[in-house]
Design a protein that fits this description.
Layout (H helix, E strand, L loop, with lengths): L7 H17 L9 E2 L5 E2 L1 H17 L4 E4 L11 E9 L1 H5 L6 E8 L2 E9 L4 E6 L3 E4 L2 E2 L12 E4 L8 H11 L4 E3 L4 H8 L5 E4 L4 H4 L2 H7 L3 E3 L12 E4 L4 H8 L11
Parallel strand pairs: 3-4, 10-11, 10-12
Antiparallel strand pairs: 1-2, 4-5, 5-6, 6-7, 7-8, 8-9, 12-14, 13-14
Helix pairs in contact: 1-2, 5-7
Length: 265
């Protein structure tokens, strides 16, 4: 990437691109799909990409912790840790749909220092770090300036979203007021928001490896990233990501109080 010195930002981008390249070796190859205990799919591509990403970090940052979707945590008490999702969008990956990505985040506590997402099948990488901006294929990324819901594009991963009935009602109330709604989901939706091609992306359930890398990408591109309670966190278990201009309007539909979400945290 241009105009930046070697940094955690560069490391996050490099390891995301490296691991995505590993996963690409199996893309379109008809890999065997296994089902994990939580019902989600996994393949040899997921496991090998994460294994090699962990080894990449071990060689360069041997004292840092390692957290990922497919393997046990290493050095969980380390001050700084790297969080991996080797293939975000495995269901798309195994069907030959290119809207999947590799996510990498570097964190201290609950602060995400840097995050990167590589989408090798569509040849796009976006990466960001606190105070260093968001970069998309070597150029600055910026959320859109769309300020009217009637002109906005709103995205979600699955048409069956959300699972919680009161959230479903809120989502469809929002969708009734936007120009376009699509299920260009998983991490690809956040790429579109960060690069100004969509305005709203929402997820009902997010693990740390799903969301950590995306927070700095959205915020450093000028957007807003919160959970459904309005907290600016990458670890809230759910996500509302918007451009800056539509954050308040979106939150009026979607934000929920603790009292109103009993049993849904």
């Amino acid at each position: 990437m241009s105009e930046r010195t070697e940094s955690l930002l560069q490391a996050a981008a490099d390891v995301a691109e490296f691991a995505a390249g590993v996963a690409m070796q199996w893309y379109g190859a008809g890999v065997t799909v296994e089902t994990k205990g939580d019902g989600s799919p996994v393949t040899i591509a997921d496991r090998e990409a994460e294994r090699q990403a962990r080894a990449w970090i071990e060689r360069r940052f041997p004292h840092d912790g390692l957290v990922g979707e497919e393997f046990e945590t290493v050095r969980g008490d380390a001050k700084r840790r790297w969080i991996f999702d080797p293939i975000d969008g495995t269901k798309a990956f195994v069907r030959g749909v290119p809207l999947w990505g590799t996510l990498v985040a570097c964190c201290e506590g609950d602060t995400v220092l840097a995050g990167a997402a590589c989408y090798p099948a569509v040849k796009e990488t976006v990466a960001a770090a606190r105070g260093e901006g968001c970069w998309w294929n070597g150029s600055r990324a910026q959320v859109s300036s769309v300020s009217a819901l009637a002109e906005a594009t709103a995205l979600v991963t699955d048409s069956r979203f959300p699972a919680r009935p009161h959230r479903r009602d809120a989502w469809f109330d929002l969708v009734a007021n936007v120009a376009v709604s699509r299920t260009w989901g998983d991490c690809y939706g956040y790429l579109l928001v960060a690069t100004g091609r969509a305005e709203i992306m929402v997820d009902d359930i997010m693990n740390p490896w799903d969301s950590a890398a995306l927070q700095p990408i959205i915020t450093e591109a000028g957007g807003r990233f919160s959970d459904w309670r309005g907290r600016a966190t990458a670890f809230g278990g759910d996500v509302i990501a918007t451009n800056a201009a539509l954050a308040n309007a979106t939150h009026r539909y979607l934000l929920e109080s603790s009292a109103g979400a009993t049993g849904d945290s």
